[in-house]
Amino acid sequence: MSLLSLTGLSKSFGGLMAVNDVSFDLAEGSILGLIGPNGAGKTTVFNLITGIYRPDQGDIRFKDTPIMGLPTHRIVSLGIARTFQTIRLFQNLSVLENVLSGWHCRMRAGSLRAMLRTPGQRREERQALERALRMLEFVRLRHEAKQLAKNLSYGNQRLLEIARALATDPRLLILDEPSGGMNEQETGELILLIGKLREQGITILLIEHRMSLVMRLCEFIVVLDYGAKIAEGNPDEIKQNPRVIEAYLGSEEGEGR
Predict the structure, then answer these.
(1) Which residue segments constitute the domains of the chain, with CATH numbers given?
(2) DSSP letter string over 219-241?
(3) Which terminus in the chain has less CB density within 10 A, N or C?
(4) pTM for the whole thing?
């Protein structure tokens, strides 16, 4: 069953066609990798899914519900969370406060209940704190809860972004270059973390430049080049596809936006 479906998705910026008639389905409970050379349109696809951009053409459905044109906060509330290629944390807030900000979309107490400190509002606060600490435990950052986000190592800031995204209680987690800036040990731990997320039933869509990570984790891969889909299939099919080899896998590195 498809959790996310993209049909005929297109987006241009001036005379540049960033995404050109892209379609694919993401099965619930799976891990799908979106790869391609620099400028292939991968991050633009993520921005279309999460409401940062509106497509010029096409359709996006989540749980068979159209989400194209919805504001970003509404898309998050439906169960889609993401991280970014460039880290976007609240650098001067604590690690714990960053994760608590992710749970905000699930809180129901309004400003009046917050000012009056009603029992319901205090209960929500306790639940948010408990969940935030669980997410930090999951990414092995609970011991850093009081630390300012800006004081974490780059790899741990990546993990904090994932913890904040998980705090929104997503069904679909979109990861944009999650291993960026990580060393080999940190990347190995990230692979284990993503595997655990899948075991918990979270569907994952990722852009990643480390092909070893993509080939190890993803059941299905979609390849973009110049904004268009040039191939899709399982890792073995992608590794043997001549168009993919020419456009991407045959180069030394590649990957980016």
Answers:
(1) 1-69+170-257 (3.40.50.300), 86-169 (3.40.50.300)
(2) SEEEEEETTEEEEEE-HHHHHH-
(3) N
(4) 0.86
